[in-house]
Amino acid sequence: MYQAFFGLREKPFNLTPDPKFLYLNASYREALAALHYGIAERKGFVSLIGEAGTGKTTLLRRLLSELPREIRSVLVLNPAIGFEELLRFILTDLGRRPPRRATKLEMLEALNAELLDTLARGENVVVLIDEAQDLTIPVLEELRLLSNLETAKEKILQFVLAGQPEFDALLAKKEIRQLRQRIAVRARLRPLARSEVQAYIGARIAAAGGDVRGLFTRGGLLRVWHFSGGVPRLVNAACDNALVTAYATGSRTIGWREIGEAVRDLRRRTSWTPGDLIGRRTVSLLAAAVAGAVLVLGVSWLVQARRFVPPTAVVSAPPLAEPVPAKPAAEAAKPVAEVGEPAAEPGKPGVDADQHAVGAGKPVADAASVAAPDHPQPPTVSDAAGDASTPPSNDTAPHGPATDAPSGANGTIPADEPVASDAAAEPDAPEPAADEIEQGTQPTDTLVTIAPGDNLTGIARRYYGNASPRILAEIQTANPWLANVNTVRAGRTLVLPAPDVSSDED
Asked: 344, 380, 412, 504: most buried by Cβ count inside 10 Å?
């Protein structure tokens, strides 16, 4: 297409492994010499390692073209087969085609006979295997055993194994360490140096019958090296596309712009698959997006965790007194001050000021129950479950003098004080009906329902400020059903006389 425009006999940058265009720098000359030496000296195994595109196949074909006539060769380009297929291919190439149903043993015997005949004629046999990194470990082990076809003095079958760096990693495995030990000659191809790219391009242009002088600018050559990294196959691709671009624009010089367009064409995809769209840059962007999403989720989780408040334990309220039966409408309508207790005398011991916040000295809870008898507050479930065994807290009742404290030295109620219980030790008189209690009380009397855990001494101290024997006798007089002052039953209604009795202190 562009040969006549640039004065070329043929295309100089084809990707085919034509040994005519092989550029022999120091690395290639050394590798070629090592292969010749390993074969001629019957070393058994020779390895050739090079990166993809560095020209291993081209070097093998150059080797084949230089081998003397007494060396018979077999070139295997696709080793991704089983050992028996490989053995059949070698026999066929040597001119001994095995029968279709020949067994592995029969083919081995045929190969041994052919090798001995070749040795008797003074000739040698070499098998060159390209893409050796595709060989499996079992096939490599079979090749090692095949090299045992030898005489006491020399090998009668040589192998050249050419592959990419992955083949080096394969040889490093422990399973085939015996084969690795048998490789006597090792050759390696390296990419072209920056200064060698210009010589490589010039050698191929000259081999195609052209003149490289003035064809590639210094900037163009630099861009070729940056793109290819010194790999000959990539150099060929970039230069061939650049020649096409220059021919299309009528330019006889290949510079930075032409190489740049060629490189962009090589990187452009004419068809795509989902895998083609994922390049290094795309992978980096996806990784950054995933990391950002994980970070956002982590921060959101921490914020939600700080906002979350664990449920607190349910604290039982002090036991509530049971509702007092409703009073007549006329009496309920009276002001609280009429049914309350008179104000406490200043300096009177055992009486707290907060007990007379409602009315004239009546506790706040009782004043509320009198003011709103139709709306009693029933005890909660947790209160009902724990009232039978829990005495009232000292924090909720006013305290009398230290000498009147109901608790013993160990915090329990003394045995001589009455405590409310569900079953009295001795039978009491039957409790009068609610209307009888209402009729038998004075307007200034107070009705109290005995709560679980209450005792008569505590009730007297709570409502009178002390628990003298006279006050206890007055309470028993006001409650004829109370036969035994040492035992009070929870749930009963207790009539407390007018508080003028509290002025008598013992």
From this structure: 344
